[in-house]
Amino acid sequence: MGWTEVLTTAEMRALETAAMASGAVMGLELMERAGTAVAGAIRLRWPKAGRVTVLCGPGNNGGDGYVVARQLAQAGWRVRVLGMDNTPGPDAAAMKRRWAEMGGIEPLTAAALGSDLSDLVVDAIFGTGMTRPLDREMALVSRWMGGWTPARAVTPPPIVAVDAVSGLCLDSGAWLGGERGDPGGNLPRAALTVTFHAPKVGHLLELGPVLGGELVVADIGLKTTSFRDAEGQIWSERTLAVMDPPRHLQQDRGQPLLGKRAGSHKFDHGHALIVAGTAGQGGAARLSARAALRVGAGLVTLAPPADAMAEHSGPPDALMRRAVDDAAALSRLLGDDRLRAVCLGPGCGTERAAALLEPLLASRRPAVLDADALTALAGHPAIFEGLHGGCVLTPHMGEFRRLFPDLAARLDTPRPRSPAQESAQTVALQTWRQALADMRGPLYSRLDAAREAAARSGAVVLLKGPDTVIAAPDGQARIHSAFDVPWLATAGAGDVLAGIIAGLLARGLPPLEAVATGAFLHAAAARRFGPGLIADDLPEQLPGVFRDLGL
Ligand SMILES: NC(=O)C1=CN([C@@H]2O[C@H](COP(=O)(O)OP(=O)(O)OC[C@H]3O[C@@H](n4cnc5c(N)ncnc54)[C@H](OP(=O)(O)O)[C@@H]3O)[C@@H](O)[C@H]2O)[C@@H](O)CC1
Ligand SMILES: [K+]
Description:
The chain contains 20 helices and 18 strands. The protein is α/β, with parallel strands linked by helices. It has two domains: 25-222, Rossmann fold (3-Layer(aba) Sandwich); 268-416 and 444-548, Ribokinase (UDP-N-acetylmuramoyl-L-alanine:D-glutamate ligase, 3-Layer(aba) Sandwich).
């Protein structure tokens, strides 16, 4: 594996619809495969048949649940099924009938769960069709799965989620059971989530990774892997996620992408300019510079104002230094074509950043704009207008809020992305593009926000977080979930990331690739060091990361 395609719920429904419309597969068959995959994953992890309670919702997620119930019963499990008193769509109804021939269906209520004694609970209540907050009864069921009952706290049995923990929005990773960002306690945490064909956006963002546990992506035989338009071109608006060390880092059309070819010259690997600030603020820029060197830029020059030069005279000795006092000095320096990329912002000071942004943007040089440069951009709309496709913005949520207040506000409010909730099943293949634009899932996501920010600014945007989201102006996006490296939340880590990206830009990687690769290397360095990490350690881990990648 490497980069993996990630889908919205509408995209998933469109793929499924296309597969059925082409006659390649029937809905009932897909449901049987989905349920079989879940039952198989359960039997692999819990090989000794025990007692299982399967909670089945009103739609096709519930249909999968009835398949799981049947298959586990056939494998010797003692199965209790709690379901809803409704007639679901034809496929789920058929699966419900088949189960009813084998066992009973009790009403799905919190009261019925109160005395449950099972070893395992299968949550097949809601999946990709989750469109609105849980009603009161389902909220109580959900709280039971989270270990809360009116009488006392209980330890719920391990939960296996079919497609998602019910209540999670698979388009945003937000919790639909309550207020966004403050979902309260007692959220259910699955031991295992089995999803189908591809991860969904919500598995990787916000609470998705926290609530989902181990994520298994089961192949249910949907052959299509990418969206292609009528001319067979892959859409530009794709979302890819790093699930494993990306293979392309080791090899790109037979050539090492990050490795260095024997006999190459330092100028073959680019020259990065790291702008530094006035006295007393130097550490940040030096962290960026060290990272740019370690990631393999051929040369790195640090550019403080002349009166701060003394402060910047320490190691690493491999750094070159050049005083840049004002916009004119930066313009002159950028007259040298060999300077391939610039990093502006870390430890720079907002005023200095604002003054230097104009010549930098005018030079059209690839540039990472971080920290103080982002604050300067937020305060100067005219400079913001000068952003271009070679620019990379690396805001954390606070900086994002200053730059794109309306987009941040939409993230804060749990409201639908679009009121149109037209059934995807009716969407014809040719009209996907329009249909998906109308039907993105129930909640506006960090991915949506980053995409809009990139389109608006014309720059590549990396929105920081444990679920880093990266978007390019043409709609391409990457998700880099790194919930396993909490030690990255440390002072200066962002400066290192900016330096890594600047180094990769200097080495000639296109902006989106530089940013996505940079996010991966940054997390990999943190992972390699482990607990106790400080930002200074990150660049020093890069050689080990490269060795691990086989460079
Ligand atoms: N796509 C694929 O390739 C495959 C998909 N498969 C499976 O299908 C699942 C998707 O099925 P789905 O579309 O029927 O949606 P699902 O999640 O069952 O929920 C829909 C029902 O819930 C209701 N409802 C929604 N929110 C509610 C709320 N808060 N409170 C109460 N009710 C609420 C909603 O009602 P409505 O909004 O229509 O009023 C509707 O009745 C998917 O996750 C996967 O498991 C596999 O079988 C095979 C391959
Ligand atoms: K579910």
